[in-house]
Amino acid sequence: MTLLENKILYMPYFLQIVLLFFALVAIASDGIFQLLVIVLGTIFIIFAVVTNVLLILYNEKYTWLFSILNIIQISIFIFATRPLFQEVALFFYVNPWVLEALFISLIFGIITYVITKVRNTPARYGDEYKSIGYGFIIFFVLFIILITTFALLSAYPKCYLAKTLDINEIDTLPEMDAEFLRITPMKVSDRYVTDACQYPMHTPSKPCDITMIDNRPHWAYLLVPDGFVNAYNIKPKGAAFVDMATTDKKLEIKEQTIQISPDLSLTDDIYWKIHEINYWADCERTLVILYEDEIYLAVPYIEYDLHFDFPMFYRSPKWGGVFIVDKDGNIEDVDSKKAQNHPVLQGQKIFPEKLVLEYIDSQRFWKSKTKGFIDAITNTWFSHSEEIEITDVSNQGNSQPFLINTKEGLKWFVSVEPHGAAHGIYRIYLVDARTGNIEMKKYNTDEIGPVKACNYAKTDNPMVDWSQFQVIEPIPVTPDGELYWEVRIVPKDGSGISYTSFVDPKTGKVTECKTDEQIYQFIEGKLITNETTDNVTGKILDIDVFVKNGNTHWIIELNEIDYFAQAENLELDILTILVDLKINDNVTIYFDSENVIKNLIII
Question: CB under 8 Å to 289, separation ≥6 — which residues?
């Protein structure tokens, strides 16, 4: 009895077909059952392939029929579950030079096999295997050579962007819109919304993103199912919005059942649905929009154009459009031109953040415009002439690009520095967050960049216990078109904002603001402060402490001059020092023009 004639072999095939059909039907349903049937379908597909290999080894009849059946089954299964493999497929789509290297190597390998087989005619025992071996060696060696060469030239897309992008050079930065201020940083917002979430089976989605509500910036979070099982059984509860334009905790929760979103089960996941519509869309993070008291989801996406420059094919990115999803799960694909006027997207950032970074990073290959792609690439390897780097501020609680609102509209802001260890401002790029138009301002003088601005803010206040606090999110602000770095000093647990500092990149001068009113006054150029103008060091000659109207006052004599302090105007750490202060202590006092103590250090 042959292997095929054995009735036992028929059962796996019939079972595999039934289960595969069952899996394809179940994929269209909801619940954790989806995952189970996909796993079972995959297992039985593998089982069918292994069985078919056994049939080939035993030289059974009708093996070709089972091979065709396996190919059809696998194709159907892959097509039905194609969003699962989108990231892998997109890699080969965006990098066609990988397939180019594979195809060229395969052709030469086949040619080698045919030539050696013809030369060995009539064939002797073992010649067939030698021909296959020669063909494989040529294929393997050539593939390694080509894939290495193409990988070294993989910056061709950025060279193309550097050559073709239209960048408008400006002399001054656009003035900031005083109604749009980013005050609450992401870390503090995360803590606010986590503490406020009262839904046992839901959790705020992270990372959050910025959305505009009545022209005010908010951190937006979807309230998504918490945990693996819940992701298959329940829907998002709604969204939470944290007002960014204040130091106070202002949070609004909008309850609304959302049919598809990120972090859901396979076929309810927003990216699964999108990739069923447009498989090659390179999607951004999902933006939550509150429009006419209903929640909409928006997903900007990138498309790619195919090019050829010797010796390789490559694709360059461009803005494709925005997918808009309503509460019922209906998806609207809006192209980049129509997105400007779509009512749901009015006033929102819609140009992809990832594309902003691609565009700015491409400027490292500036030589593409005059010298060609190869010269541009080798410049980044060796001489680094006029090469830029996007300033890395990831250790400061957020990363570039930063979104700011100017009187010209929403702008993505990117600060770059010269290649190497320098941290000053070399250029600033502004990318319109709605159209993608690019502007650039050059800096020829030494000005402090965002990383060093954090250091200046820390140095300015030596009384803070920096083991318990941190300086985060050095974002740009442009009152009257002049650049300042706005940094927030927060507890390391993100439980609030201690104060906000503005650092002048030209002088390093730091201005501290502890209230919303002071912050808005600074942006409007109306802040009046009793700034520390001097400091003095010496031995305390006398201390007078008294209480007036329930407020403790100190008069400290140092070098025969009196300096004044009152408890209601001082931070707790300075008060602690004042309480323990004794005559003959050596101190450094920081004071203003009226001899009011602003800071105090015991030496």
Answer: 211, 220, 295, 296, 297, 298, 344, 345, 348
